[in-house]
Design brief:
homodimer, alpha/beta, Aspartate Aminotransferase, domain 2, Aspartate Aminotransferase, domain 1, 7-stranded mixed β-sheet, 3-stranded antiparallel β-sheet, 9 helices, globular, cytoplasm (chains A, B)
Chain lengths: 360, 360
C-alpha cells in the first residue's frame, strides 16, 4: 500500500492512528464480540462512548457549562434550516455576513424563514480577495442573531474576527473547528459538519448557549430542535453511533497531540510552508489576501491551466490525492486539516517544485 | 473472540461477511490508499458506490421506474416530519393507523403540521394483542395520505395487510424492509431507518412515487425535501458516505443470499422456531396473537420476571446478547432481522430450554 497524503476538502482524511484503531476493533469492539455500530445507543457501553466524546470536546474547546453540546444529523445544511427555526423566536429578521459560497448557501435557506439582512463583506484589497474588517459590518439591531462562516472552504478565505455585536453570534465552523483556539463564550451557537476536522460525514456538532433553547418555531421538526436534542442527550432519535464513536477517537487523538493550542501552531506552520512556496513561485498563484488566507483550504492556480490534468495525474502517482479544486472555481485546492501531517505538506511542495521546473 | 449472536433491536447486527469485508478494506479501499469514508462524495469512485447501492436496492425490491430512491439523513424520526411537510400539499389532514409505539410517535410529530385522523387499530383477540383487519380501518377520504407502520419493534406486532384506499399509502418500514417481498407500486412513500435491516444508524431510505414530489410545504427544510434530494441524487448535502457504502454491501449480500424471496423464507423459519418453542413452553409467553406476530421482533416474558436479570446474564455468557426488552415494556425481546442466522435462533431456543429446566 502506497503512502498516501489525502488533500480532500471533505469528506476528508482522518488521523491515521484513529483509522488503524477503528479497523483493529471493527468487528470486536470493547471485547463484546460485535462492532460498536451493532449495539444499542442506549447500552451502557455506548453511553460511555457518547459521554466521553462530549467531555473530550468540552475539554478541547473549553466549552463553558452554560452551553449544550449536541450531536446532530444532517450536516451543516441541516443547520442552515435549524438555526432560523430554533433561534428566531418572535423576531422576523436575521443578519448574515457574506464572505463566500457557504455563507451564501446559508442565506438562501434562511430566506425561507425570515427576512435576511445580508452584509456583503467581500472586497478586493491590493488585487486580492479579502474580507472587510468586522468593525465595518453593519448589523441590524433588530436581528435575532448574526450568522457568519469563518472559513470558506471553496474560496480559501478565513476570518479571524467576530461580528462586533451584542446579538447572539452563530458560526458555521464546519471547516475550521478545532483547528485554532476560540473563545466559545463569545458565541450563541457554533455548528460544524464533522467531515473535515471531526470525523466521518453524517454527524454534525452544535454547541448552543442555554438561553437560546426556548425560541423554536412551532413547525420546527423535533429531530433538529436544539431543545429536544438537549433534553434527550442527542438521542431523541437513534444517533449515527459509528460516526459519534469515530469523532470521539479523533477528540482523543487531538488531546494526545497536545490539544488545540498545539494543533493550531502546527496548522500555522503547514499553511506557511505552502503559501510561502506559492508566493515565491512564478508558476503558482493564490488569489486571497494574506489577511484572510485560510489555514485549512489553500486554493491555487497553475500559470498554465491547460496542465491541470497532468498536475493532478502526476500528483496522484506520487500519492498526493484529491487536489482538484471545487467544481465552482476550478484550479487546485489543498485542504490541510488537522489530520494532515507536516510531511504531507512538504511532500506536496516538493512535487509542486518539480512540476514547475519540468513545465515552466 | 467468542461467537456472538446479537439480538439487538437496533442498531442491530450486520451480516458477518459484510463486516469482515468492510474491516479488510477499512483503510485501503479500492486500492486508493484511503478509506471509502475519506474521499469526496462527488468522486467517480464514490458515485459508483452510490449508484450500485441504489440499483441493487431497486433489484431487490423490484422498485418501478416511477419511484425515486433517496438516501436521507436523520432516521425515521426525521421522516415523521418530512412526510407531512413533503406530502400535505393543499390538504390539511392525514390519516394515521395506530398499531403501536412507533405509529404513535409519527402521529405526535405529524400533529405539528396538520389535523391527524388517528385510526386506533389495536385490539385484543382471544386474549392476545392483535390488529384489526385493514377492511375495518375507517379512512377519511379528505386525507392527503394514509400512514402506517407495518412492523412495531417494541410491541412485536406485524401487519401484512395494506390500507384499503386510493390515497397515497405511506409506510414506515424501518424494521421490516427487505425482510419479505412487497409490491412497491401499492405505496406512495416507503421509508426505513437503516439500523435494522439495511446498515448502520445514520442513514434512512425513502422510496417516493414521482407524482408526490411537488407537494412541499414552503417551510420544508431543503435537506429533507424529497424533490431536492431527487434532483441532487441524494447529494444536496454531504451524505453519510460510509453508511451508504455499508448499506450497499448489505444489498449485495442479500442478492448473494438469493434475494428477498429467499430471505423471507428463512425469516419465516427463524420466527417459527422461536414462536413454536415459546408456545410449547410453560415458562415463556408471547402476548401477540398469531395473526400479527412479528417475524422481526419477538418479545417474550418469563414466568418468573424476578429472574430476568439472571436470564440476561447467563444468555450473555453464552454469547446471546442484547435480549433485554425495550425500556417501555420490559421483559425480553429477540430481534431476528435478516442478518441473524438460523443457528443463532436455534442457540437461543437451546439456552431458553436449559434456563427453563433449571428454574421452572
Amino acid at each position: 500500500m502506497m503512502n498516501v497524503y489525502n488533500f480532500s476538502a471533505g469528506p476528508a482524511g482522518l488521523p491515521k492512528e484513529v483509522m488503524q484503531k477503528a479497523q483493529a476493533e471493527f468487528i470486536d469492539w470493547n471485547g463484546l464480540g460485535t462492532s460498536v455500530m451493532e449495539i444499542s445507543h442506549r447500552s451502557k457501553e455506548f453511553i460511555k462512548v457518547a459521554e466521553e466524546a462530549e467531555q473530550d470536546l468540552r475539554d478541547l474547546l473549553n466549552i463553558p457549562d452554560n452551553y449544550k453540546v449536541l450531536f446532530c444529523q444532517g450536516g451543516a445544511r441541516a443547520q442552515f434550516a435549524a438555526v432560523p427555526l430554533n433561534l428566531l423566536g418572535n423576531s422576523t429578521k436575521a443578519t448574515y455576513i457574506d464572505a463566500g459560497y457557504w455563507a451564501q448557501s446559508a442565506v438562501k435557506e434562511a430566506k425561507k424563514y425570515c427576512e435576511v439582512d445580508v452584509v456583503d463583506a467581500k472586497m478586493i484589497k491590493e488585487g486580492k480577495l479579502a474580507v472587510m474588517h468586522a468593525s465595518d459590518w453593519k448589523i441590524d439591531p433588530q436581528s435575532a442573531y448574526v450568522h457568519f462562516c469563518p472559513n470558506e472552504t471553496i474560496d480559501g478565505v478565513e476570518i479571524s474576527e467576530l461580528p462586533d455585536t451584542q446579538l447572539p453570534i452563530v458560526a458555521d465552523m464546519s471547516s475550521n473547528i478545532l483547528s485554532r483556539e476560540i473563545d466559545v463564550s463569545r458565541y450563541g451557537v457554533i455548528y460544524a459538519g464533522a467531515q473535515k476536522n471531526i470525523g466521518p460525514a453524517g454527524i454534525c456538532i452544535a454547541i448552543v448557549r442555554d438561553d437560546l433553547l426556548g425560541l423554536a418555531h412551532e413547525l420546527l421538526p423535533s429531530f433538529i430542535s436544539y431543545k429536544v436534542l438537549a433534553e434527550k442527550d442527542s438521542m431523541f432519535n437513534t444517533p449515527p453511533t459509528f460516526a459519534w464513536y469515530l469523532s470521539g477517537l479523533v477528540f482523543k487523538w487531538l488531546k494526545e497531540q497536545g490539544g488545540v493550542g498545539v494543533i493550531e501552531k502546527r496548522n500555522a506552520e503547514k499553511a506557511s510552508i505552502l503559501y510561502d512556496y506559492i508566493d515565491s513561485s512564478d508558476f503558482y498563484t493564490n488569489d486571497v489576501h494574506t489577511q484572510n488566507r485560510s489555514r485549512m483550504n489553500v486554493p491555487f492556480q497553475l500559470a498554465k491551466p491547460e496542465l491541470d490534468g497532468l498536475f493532478l495525474q502526476q500528483a496522484q502517482e506520487k500519492g498526493l490525492v484529491s487536489l482538484k479544486g471545487h467544481r465552482v472555481v476550478g484550479g487546485m485546492r489543498a485542504s490541510i486539516y488537522n489530520a494532515m501531517p507536516i510531511e504531507g505538506v512538504k511532500a506536496l511542495v516538493e512535487f509542486m517544485k518539480e512540476f514547475a521546473a519540468d513545465n515552466a
